[in-house]
Amino acid sequence: MSRHPTLRDVTSLWRDGDFLKFWIGQTISDFGDQITLLAVPLTAVITLHAGPVEMGLLAAVETTPTALFSLFAGVWVDRLPRRRILIVADLGRAVLLMTIPVAFVLGLLSMAQLYVVGFAVGTLSVFFIVAYQAYLPGLVGRAGLVDANGKINASGSLAQLAGPGVAGVLVQLFTAPMPVLLDALSFLASVTGLALIRRAELPVVARPRDMRAEIREGLSALLRHPILRTLVAVSAIFVLLLSAQAAIFILYLSRDLRLDPSVLGLILAIGAAGALLGALLASDIARRLGIGPAFILGAVLGTIGVTSRAVLFASPEATVATIAAMQFVLFFGASLFNVNGPSLRQALTPSHLLGRVNASYRFLVWGTGPFGALLGGTLGAVLGLRAALLVTGLACLAVFPIFLLSPLPHIREVPSPEPAPVTS
Question: Which of 5, 183, 300, 405 yields a CA-CA distance of 20 to 30 A from 192?
Fold first, then answer.
């Protein structure tokens, strides 16, 4: 059997100019995103004096588009050239983010604007992520998926390592909203990388245009496959509970522990160091343990991290050191998730279904994010921020019975690219 023309050996990715253009553009954009990740919540807390419920609502509106639009995005990603969708999404996000520092300078910034911009940027991000996950297999070939996902996650983790520390300094120097401008500019760098790619995409498969039937086909391909179904169940639980923690974690550090923005940035950067190391070692760990056990190891480390970072000690220094260490453990485990999980999903899905299967996954998994954010804000207001972190961390233990009943512990290698069962 002849090899697909886009299928290359894993080691050739370093010499693949088109992949490098894509990768470099995404790396620059990732650095900008990490600045915004700290700058926007701090804008809400410091500049607009937001409380737990408002922070939960802000996190919710940023993730609500995943539940609302993922399934529709998957259909359009399978209908249209995927690179074109990536470029339009990046341009739109650049324009939207620029409105935040402009409004601040004019004295017009409000929580309402943060809600609107968060929702709109989240919507474009849904289309970008679904299109990117469908575009990558055609760019590097199935044999290069684990390596490509590892490289992308490693550079994203490097951005997480440097970005928050830079963001913390920039927030102190220029006030919270202004560093968001750098993220807007970083999206333009991503557009440049995408525009320079010369490799042609696979042609779109012609089929009847029936939105509901196409959505059902993608959902069926995902949920009828035992491996993919397990990934959905486990990941949905983690995203729900991690979203609950994310909604209140920065507020907990800045209000309850009274940490300066520069210290917040340092803690997030240490977590990013764990993510970077996890991304660099993910392929080796998968080869030694098997890709399924490596994914489960990520869940174990993630559960330890989210539960233990709410531990308090009499010494403030010991508390901060423990939180930083648990950030490292959490994000090391998250990298094992984010490299091995998508690689399994991409390898098991035929090309013409990649958009809809990835979109269905995001709908079912990341669609829990708004509920998690509201849950975190509510628990933080009712129980207190630290108690809310402990409760949501312990709840992650619910994933382990699912692992025991699934095929994942026995999967040693990336599966062959056989299509998942689908319905016509």
Answer: 5
